[in-house]
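USER:
Working in pairs, take the chain set out below, taking as long as you need, and write a paragraph about the fold.
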Amino acid sequence: MAFAVAALAAASANTTNNAANHTGTAGTPASGDLLLAAIQVSGNTAVGTMSGTWSWKFLTSFPKNGGADTVFIFYAAATAATSTTPVYAISGNSTGSAMSVLRITGGDGTTQPYLRQFKTAIGTTANPAVTMDTAILTGNGVVGIASNTTNSAVQWTQPASWSGEIHEVTYATPAASLQTCYRISGETGTTITWTNANVTAWGIIVMEFYIAGTGITEDGSGGTGYFGGASSI
């Protein structure tokens, strides 16, 4: 099965100053989908919890805006074609939040993401970029998540030759955006660059997924690498 990425449902955004849940948009995955949720939270750095039909697990997070805001990433394995409403329980106060949930198929992990590598970057320049630790393998799939403190409706252009954008969602007071995008295969670069003219604080992540049948599950010492993938590259 080829690597593929699609939206679970529409992205969602909320401007509020409380510790309430962020309830995403209900959607129905296919049985066997790996679900990946990105949640941008303003004014908050504490990891909350995800819920919704299946068991959600925390993957990683990265800060932006001088550490005042955070993007949290969770995953879950969909074991049936059942409608689900993903909910992120914010830990502590926030001033706004946005959520994008992706359906991933064709990766080497169905119950968890098997990643060859991932890398984050933060800054305030135009055209945010991240430099990976090593060049991406052409056969692997890649997912990118970007966020900044601007809420103009259409501002992000995914990296060159990438397959497409999944979501771009914004909210105001405070201004923030969240964008998700992907490339099925063919990426061989080390520096991955988005096009965005804004110079507000941003944070980005690129995750390289092993395609089915290619991931290394053991490093020779009995350990596993990035969430089941390779320990060494």
